[in-house]
Each structure stands twice: as C-alpha cells, then as structure tokens.
Amino acid sequence: MSGLYLETAATSIAAQFEYNDKDVLKGVSEFIREMRLGLAEERPTMCQIPTYLTHVASGSEKGLALAVDLGGTNLRVCSVDLHGDTTYTAHHSRIAVPREIMLASHASTLFSFIAIQIKAFFLTYHPRFLEDENTSILRLGFTFSFPVHQKSINSGTLLRWTKGFEIADAVGKDVCQLLQFEIDALGLPIQVTALVNDAAGTIMARAYSLPLSSTRTSIGAIFGTGTNGVYLEKVANIKKPLYGKYDKSTGEMFISIEWGSFDNNLAVLPVTPFDILLDKESINPGNQMFEKRVSGMFLGELLRLSLLSLNADPNIILFSGCNDQLEKNVPPTEDKENLVLLSKWSVDSSILSIAEKDKSEFMEPFRKAISETFKLPGARVSLADAKAVKIIAHAIGKRAARLSGMSTAAVMLQAGHFSTLPLDKGSEVVIKEEVVEMGENKSATVDIGVDGSVIEFYPGFESYMRETFRIIPEIGTAEINIKLGITKDGSSVGAAIIALLAG
What we know:
Elements (H helix, E strand, L loop, with lengths): L2 H13 L5 H20 L8 E2 L11 E9 L3 E10 L4 E9 L2 H4 L4 H19 L2 H4 L6 E7 L3 E5 L2 E4 L16 H11 L4 E7 L1 H12 L9 E5 L3 E8 L17 E5 L16 H9 L9 H4 L1 H16 L38 H8 L6 H10 L9 H32 L31 E6 L1 H5 L3 H11 L10 E5 L3 H13 L1
Parallel strand pairs: 2-5, 5-8, 9-12, 12-13
Antiparallel strand pairs: 1-11, 2-3, 3-4, 6-7, 9-10, 10-11
Protein name: Phosphotransferase
Pfam family, one: Hexokinase_2
Enzyme class: transferase
C-alpha cells in the first residue's frame, strides 16, 4: 500500500463530512423555523425554554454567591464575590462525576453527591459559614445543563438526560428541589435561588466583566462536552404560556434554545454512515442529532468510526502490523495490543485539536498523540498514517465549526440583530436576501459569550464559524462587528451572578 493510496482513501471519507454554503443557508432557514415553533408551543425538541431571567448583568452588582455547575462529566462548585466594578474574586473546585453516579437508579444518589461536594468546598474555602450558627443564608445558582421545563427562576422539571447521564428516577422531578433537599439534609446555610444553564451563565459572566460602557452580551453559546445556546428574546414573541413570575419591565427574556435536538428528523442536517452508526450506538438514538455532530462528546467517536471504515479497505493496513487485530466481530480482549480502535467511545475528541494544531513537516507531536490514544508503539504510526488521520479529523472538526456558525447565525437573525422576513403561509422561514445586502447595518455590534473545550482549544474553530457568518446574506461583511468572547468558567461565575440577581 502506498502513502498516496491511503491519502486518497482518507480524502474520500473526509469529503463525506462536507457542509457547503447551500447547506448552511438551508440550515439557517430551518433553524429559525424551529425556533419560532418552540416559541409558539411546547415541543419535545428545540424547546425554546423560558428562563424567567429578564436582566443582563451591568457590571455594578455586588455580593457573595455560590454556583454549582453540572454541565457534563465534571461537577464544579464555585463561590464568587462581586466587587461592583466589573471585577470579582472566585474560588473553584472540580471533580469528575463517577460513571456509576451518572447511571444511578435513584436521583438521590446524584444530588447527595453534589451536596457532599458543596460541603467539602465550604470546609476548604468558607469554613466560617459552617461554624457560625447565625450566618446569613447564601444564594446558590444551579447550572444544570440538561433540558428542563422551567416553571420559574428557581424551579424546573427534568425533561430528559443527555451527555451520557441516564437516571430515570430524576426525569419529571424538580431538580432544584432535589438539590435543596440534600443541602438541607447536611444542614448547609444555602438556598437555591436560580436554575441556570451553562449558556445563560456564560452570558452573565461575560456581560458582568465587560467595561460598563460596552454593548451588553445578549447571546451565549456552549461548544464543549455538549452544546446549547441562549439568547434574549422579546416577550411579545413568546406565544406559549409563561407560568412563572418574572420582571415584565424589560419586555425581554432569556430563552434556552436546547439546540442539541435541532432537526432530529434530519431534514437538513448532514448525514454520513458514521453519523448513523454513532447515533445507533448512543444511549439516545434519534435524539440530539445536532449535538452528535458538534459537541466534544461525539467528535472523537466519529473519528474512530471513520478510521475503522478506512482500515476495512483490504488494501490498507493502518498503523502497520495491527490489521490482524481489527478483524470484524472480534471482541476486545486483554491479549490484543490495540483495542482502542475497536472500543466504542474510546477516542477523546482532544485528538482533533492536536491534529489541527500540528503543522510540522513530520508531524511528530500528532504521531505521538496517535500512539498514546490508540496505545501503540510510536514506531507503528507512520507519517502516512498521521496524514490520513489528520485529513479525516480536519473534516470532522470543520463541519462541527460550520454547523456551530450556522446555529449562531440563525439565533442572531431571530434575535433581530440582522433582518429576516416573517414566516410565510407555509410556516417556512424565508431569508431576506434582496433587502439587506451583504450585511447592512454595519455599525451594529453583537456581543456573544462562548465557552467550552471545543471552541477554546480547537484551532480555527472561531474562524470557521465566522466564515459561515459571512455566507448569510443578512450578515455578510458585517461579520466584523460580531464579537465572540471566550468566557472561562462562565457557567459557574455566571450562575452565581444570576443567583444574586434572582434573590
């Protein structure tokens, strides 16, 4: 087998991940259509969940508050002391959520685990609150990045699990009450005052930290283990019932889009054989189809499945000498040296970032990463192997970024930052190309807070998103006025800010 043959085969697989300009425009139109349906009625997908949060942080807020962030595989506990001048002091702790807790039989297993971590955090950073019986109650913002039916700022019932969690006992229950019960059981002086998702927290953290004279952040997006977006919507556009209390003076409310479930019926999303197989092997087949193409939890698995297909070519032996260990239907055993390529969900998405970053002639950093990921001796990973893996990894990462750009662009249009036509008689969104040519309103500034390991560490992710923005006729060259700001730990710091605002 020649290196050229391997490269050609890899390029053929990579081509299946193309997400072209025409696909982007179709995606934007369908995305806006589903957003508007979600504002009009309760839906199981693209839920458009009202958060009952109506204010953007100004940067002048003061006080001490707590946050608990359950956004994926890690649990974070945070305390934030806001100084009232766009600055704050924060303490953080983080612990991995054990797999057995993610799949527990009872909700109390998870929420008691969270409460125990909160107490441990207090003992480390704020012991006086546990020692003083007369201490004031601290407000806590609970960042719970899973679909919920939010009834008020501090109440919401879990609709379904995502990101590898599967605790059936918790579905349909109020997650704030579940957490408060376990907090009270430990006698902690804490009140859960706000239920937040990570994207909303990111908005608040970025908005608080900006100079007081700056345009306030009105859109937040997460591109990490999972993905979601939150934006500021006019209350008049929310046609479905609002059950909870909220401040009506602003005329606006933050909406959690729950865009991981966009286009579950695959009307416009790109589909490859690898997407189909990944979905089939996931814990929620048929659901979260957008997330399965964008989030870090799934990108590594898409790469693994693609490499398995590449290696199935009888003329190709990836990582030379290990083809005999990749026979079809051979279960992993301790006797086989390379089990990773055969093992589902075994490839971490960080390898895509390493591939994109390595521009060296002989790709030694990436070859080392391949050998470590697939548990191979370094000599088994040739330059040709590395080039082939990189070709496919690049295609998967670029598609994820362009899909992310598509969704973010659609949100900007729906939020009124650029122009769109209203729904027509067939409930089909029409993108208004003839009125706003190549991004009229160039003076407008849109500030977007973003967080997550994918957008932070994947080289060029933002550039591919911006490339996608420019495709949209309503945006075009006005893309330069869109600010994307990485907000570190936004989901925890932002939740604490919201807890203070809600109190």
